[in-house]
Amino acid sequence: MPGACERGEPMGLRERKKAATRRTLQRAAVRLAMERGSESVTVDDIVAAADVSKRTFFNYFSSKDEAIVGDGPPRPDDEAREIFVAQGPTGDLLEDLKVFLLAPLAGTDSDDLRQRLADIRERKRLVQQEPQLTPRLMAAFADMERYVGESVAERLGEDPDDIRPQIVASLGITAMRFSMRRLQTHSAASGSADSQDDAAEFRALFDQAFDALRRTFRPAS
Amino acid sequence: MPGACERGEPMGLRERKKAATRRTLQRAAVRLAMERGSESVTVDDIVAAADVSKRTFFNYFSSKDEAIVGDGPPRPDDEAREIFVAQGPTGDLLEDLKVFLLAPLAGTDSDDLRQRLADIRERKRLVQQEPQLTPRLMAAFADMERYVGESVAERLGEDPDDIRPQIVASLGITAMRFSMRRLQTHSAASGSADSQDDAAEFRALFDQAFDALRRTFRPAS
DNA sequence: ATGAAAAAATGCGCAAAGTGAATTAATGCG
DNA sequence: CGCATTAATTCACTTTGCGCATTTTTTCAT
Fold it and tell me: Looking at CA atoms only, how far is residue A139 from chain B in angstroms?
């Protein structure tokens, strides 16, 4: 969502530093929140830990909570959206939706992906530990849901305010949430769990969710 | 969600005043936000308009946004939940879910209902006018979704973390959101629109949403 | 009624959250 | 190198949110 790593560009020093700063802040925020509880962490604490000024913090995040809870799932880029809108790769709505939603995980190189999944894990652990954060997290998905809803509406040639696109989007997001939520739960025991497996596991969970959808749903008439 | 009008009790002076104060604050908040944009409204402005102290404001709302965006949909009470969990009135999942979600609208007398729907309308108009508020609004639904998900899980005898209850809950909430969202859009022109019609209209929208669900879904095997 | 108990509203004050504007430092590029 | 851009910092300031002691209002038992 930031001016992030669009299309595997080399990504100059400048952007790398930016990304680094952002991640440093986010990690400090999450770590401190895990240690003392998010309520008793101040922005000053976070910036002290990350060694930047308070103002810089607010250049990256518009609120303390945003830093702690994260930005929600990454958006599929325009290319993926176009494919999806044009009756996607297969023509089957659910299958194409799955591809669409997974698009952001497809391109990135595995180091980056590794990092991201690890961060997701960490944040989920935190949210589980502090349920008050759940609404914030849900809010982070709101944008995404709207985006998906609009894409579905366009694909189906319906109005975004119609009920069907909203239903479909809601289902896709639910699958995403489900997968992310499950990612955290287990592990921790198996210290050897290679992060490569994380990606595989995420995909597996996502597949499982979509299988359930397919079982529950009647194919669009 | 507040200690509101549980079980059509007479509701003494005390509670009535409390409710009045709350509503006054909320309305002032919404009105001002509509006029100048929510960003440029301060709590001081709100309390000035409502003629209470700032401290009182924070006794009712834990944040400015909470006053502006509202509390989300009202929760079904325990009685409705029990009925639903015990395979609801009809035994059909979707039908019973509909009844469950509409329960809070069933008991209240029409004056109260009238008010509530009017307020919902107003708030939705505001959110539409200021999309940045959407995430906040979604957050308000998060609690409800969890609650519904747990109820569904219990009814189905599954784990709340399983995918199916989450799917069903997500759909119910989507229907609710859809109905609330549509409520605002039209009218405004027909000044004569009796609020009694509002309730009817809301139910109609809700029915429409559930019809769509029924069409899209495969009955639980 | 009436006075004690309970709960709500208020005023004060402070720690923390956020923000605007000017300044300084670090990159990118010719 | 030197110039344009963009990021980071500093500083001063507004707003938020809440703890606490005090006052006002409502309730209720007698």
Answer: 4
Kindly indicate the confidence band of residue A206, based on its pLDDT and cuts at 50, 70 and 90.
very high
CATH superfamily of A1-68: Homeodomain-like (1.10.10.60)
Q: What is the pTM of this model?
A: 0.84
Q: Does residue B135 contact residue B65 with C-beta atoms inside 8 Å?
A: no
- Chain A residues inside the 8 Å CB shell of B65: none
B6-23: average pLDDT: 74
- What is the mean pLDDT of the segment spanning B15-37? 91
Predicted confidence (pLDDT) per residue in B208-220, tens digit: 999 999 888 776 5
A18 close contact with B: CB closer than 8 A: no
Interface test with B, best of A167, A168, A208 (most B CBs within 10 A): A167
Q: HSE of A192 in the Cβ direction (CA atoms, 13 Å)?
A: 0
- B200 pLDDT band, cuts 50/70/90, is confident
- Tell me, which fold does domain A72-221 have in CATH? Tetracycline Repressor; domain 2 (1.10.357)
Neighbouring C-beta atoms of residue B63, cutoff 10 Å: 11
A46 within 8 A of A28, measured Cβ to Cβ = yes
- The domain B1-65 is placed in CATH, from the list 2.40.30.60, 1.10.760.10, 1.20.1250.20, 1.10.10.60, at 1.10.10.60
CB A45 within 8 A of CB A32: yes
Do A167 and B134 lie within an 8 Å CB cutoff? no
